[in-house]
Amino acid sequence: MPTELEELVGFIAHPNPQIRKLAAENLVPYSTEQPSIFKTKELLPVKHLKFLIRDHSEIAEHAITMLVNLTADRSILEHVAADERFLGILLGNLIDPAEPNADLLAMLLANLAKWDGLKSIVTRKQDPPAALKSNELVLNQLLDLFVKGADGTYNKDADFDYLAYVLADLSKHPEIRQFFVTTQDYDEVIPINKIKVFTEHKSDIRRKGVASTIKNVAFDVPAHPAFLDEDQINILPYLLLPITGNEQYDEEEMIGMLPDLQLLPPDKQRDPDHSIVQTHVETLTLLTTTREGRDLMRSVNVYPIIRETHLRVDDEGVREACERLVQVLMRDEAEPGKEGEAEGDGDDDKIVEV
């Protein structure tokens, strides 16, 4: 005999929309408290939820919320993420400027991006809405959606902040990293340039996801010259400004810094999220992998900024990251050492993708 909850789960497929709505609304808490009830009959309830994302907006909202919760389970995550037809519907709805549940869809996509198989999205295409002004490549659409969502001009019901987490997880894969540093034909822009401006955004989610994306892409050492070139990506100001506070430097130190770092306002604040500060410092360390990167950071006085960050941020992870970077910057280049060991020699010093 099925339990009352199992019977309730069955009602999400009822032909009467009022019954579907009532069942879905009442089941939302159980998608976190008792997810096992959705795993019966070879995940049939999950299959019904995937279908319901195209239902009336209120029913769809509950269905998407449950899928967000349920994809914390690895078996459900892989079942949902591997469904190409469902992914196509999700992506099509996500870019619809009138989609009322766009932010929930972005959250669900952020979960699905934790499945390694989603890296195939690098070649996926779909027709973009005219309002998006993008091309047919889904990755470009996600980036353009992320940019336009920042000020709420694309979809009045969405800010698309959670796409930052989508980009961060996808950027763990080499083929996605390559996309981020390759100029796109349709707008002649290097994709990572679209997101670097959000390292000081008001949204914690945006800042954290963008910081992680930049760091992951920085594992692509051949792209470092472009990262550091003022006419290509010019990433240093976007890494250094978030970790800089209102400290006072002596004139000699100040003059040598990048122009963006000079004469900052007295109310300038360092990013309050210590994990973001640590990520930016680790990205700087990755960019010291080459001799050119190390020389550039020395020439623009990165050390004083790291010194003050180490002194003022009360966080062990930040301090350890600062110490690793300082060791590299203060190292005598005449000392023996292998090129490309900016992460340190031991496992404890290794910088990992986020």
From TrEMBL:
- Extract the ranges annotated as region (Disordered): 332-354
What is the top-level taxon of the source organism?
Answer: Eukaryota
Compositionally biased intervals (Basic and acidic residues): 332-341
Domain Protein HGH1 N-terminal stretches: 94-277
Q: Which residues form the Protein HGH1 C-terminal domain?
A: 283-336
Spell out the InterPro entries in the cross-references: ARM-like, ARM-type_fold, Hgh1, Protein_HGH1_C, Protein_HGH1_N
Q: Pfam family of this protein, just one?
A: DUF383
Q: Which family does it belong to?
A: Belongs to the HGH1 family.
Which PANTHER family did the record assign?
PROTEIN HGH1 HOMOLOG
This one is known as: Protein HGH1 homolog
Origin species:
Parathielavia appendiculata
